[in-house]
Amino acid sequence: MRAVVQRVDGASVRVRESSGELNSVGEIVGLGLLVLVGVTHTDTPDHAAKLAAKVHDLRIFDRDLVAEHGLRAPDDSGAELSASDLGLPVLVVSQFTLYGDVAKGRRPSWTPAAPGPIAEPLVAEVVRVLRERGTEVQTGQFGADMRVSLINSGPFTILLEI
Questions:
Q1: pTM above the 0.90 mark?
Q2: Which residue from 109, 144, 153 is spatially nearest to 5, judged by alpha carbons?
Q3: What is the pLDDT of residue 122?
Q4: What distance in Å separates the CA atoms of residue 20 and residue 28, rounded to the nearest whole number?
Q5: Alpha-carbon distance 96 to 73, whole Å?
Q6: Where are the domains of the chain?
Q7: H or E stretch covering 15
């Protein structure tokens, strides 16, 4: 499993309906995380749970940034804080293109990406585990043509591989 984790100051995902209209399906306002999740053929629910735990505990918010946004950090926490320390939301969006392979030629091969029947429940498992841990989670719409908007704070982007 792969994820691109971005520290954001707001993010949203919209989906084009059959009418052509774009409708919001997930949004976080203010500080939080945008997590783009890719699944490959060998991934399991255990991989999804490990990814969710890593995202939940990832310490990428510094106290100055937290104070800038009028948030209060727990007194017993360190200099770097996680979204869970601060009660910040997470927007999870499935992204099969994280497994695009361009080693040969100029056209990506999607062979390494798991098909929908394998990938969709694993992305849902990431969301379930995050929620189980107390995280407010918004999501995209699996398999839809999505428009993702974000304000990357920092910029701060990390690639996770489980």
A1: yes
A2: 153
A3: 98
A4: 24
A5: 35
A6: 2-161
A7: strand 2-16
